[in-house]
Amino acid sequence: MTIVLFHSMYGPRPAVHAAAERMRTTGHEVLVPDLYDGRTTDLAEEGLRIRDEIGSDELLRRAVAAVAPHSGKGLVYAGLSLGGSVAQNLALGDDRARGLLLLHGTSDMADDAATDIPVQLHVADPDPYETEDWLNAWYLRMRRAGADVEVHRYRGAGHLYTDPELPDYDAQAAERTWAVALDFLRDL
Question: Into how many domains does the chain fold?
Fold first, then answer.
């Protein structure tokens, strides 16, 4: 199975490549598109500045261009935070998508979508970017779109808790997330 893993607002940091390697060790081909042209940062403000400088339309264009050569494979889309938003947008627009794995982030795209793909979300609880009200509305939109949705919340973890180089890191939550996520991918 081929998985496309999109990076967070911090860019394609080592944690993104480590996540891809975890998936590869279970037999998956994993593509890691670089939407930031090699730029990375350890600072949220800088990541947001890079994201805004590139712009959401250009980020989506880059993501589409990255997956286009592989689109006939029935891809699984995955993403970390900002990358989750990108992954969701692409998965809901791909009638051959096999699944969607969201780590730390979602998108508001779902209102006009129709899909029956399995979706798994892992998110901190609470999360400043993915509030309770937002997640409830997101869940309902995804269910109305036809997706088979699982939500896993991790109390006390920071927003990007799977990245060991960021202050949000939570080793226990990260290991639980990866155990559940890898089972999800195996079952697709």
Answer: 1
